[in-house]
What we know:
single chain, 209 residues, mainly beta, YmcC-like fold, twelve-stranded antiparallel sheet, 12 strands
Amino acid sequence: MMSTGFFRNIFFATALIGSIASCNKKPTAPPAWWNLHGHFYYDLTTDTSYITNYRQLIVGSGSSADQLFFYELPTDTSLNSWESIFEIFGNGTLKVKEDGLYSHASDYCKVGVIDFTFDFLFMPAQPAIGESIPQYGCEHQNAGYNTVVLPDTILSVPAGTYHTFCVKHPNGDRSYWNTNTGIIMYEQWQHDPSLPPRKLQTLTLCRQD
Length: 209
């Protein structure tokens, strides 16, 4: 008859192997669209107007393999001036890492100081409902949170129907992402905190190439 010590040793050995296996699990791979590049075109809707093909968001690789550039342009080249709608990208450069997209900010706020930058998580690879991701400005100053408010929302836009998750940004704007395509819809909200919340305009994906 086997002793209780024998079974106890088997139990601890099994637990140890399971622990090692869980520690060696690879991080979740980034969504497929982070490896895609191209031009994404959006229609604009406001309370008073609808303009098709209003903005294009150019997504391309940066100077290294782990960077993506998000560069916004008006599709109407005859416009003399225009405002940036996709303000959430800041300097327009995000880095792709295994656990998410990363933005960066300066270590110093003073002009003329030798500048260094630090990275911080902008969007996790697997966002969870209620998850808040802190954002930063220069010198690690708090710049609010990117908060996942809707984990699985079906959106129908001119380009098609997509499963998306919604992120509320520090300025109050909301973006809706599909893990295979990218930003499907972007809502710009009233940024003045002294005024009641109001959606000002919406951009919806109409095509990509």
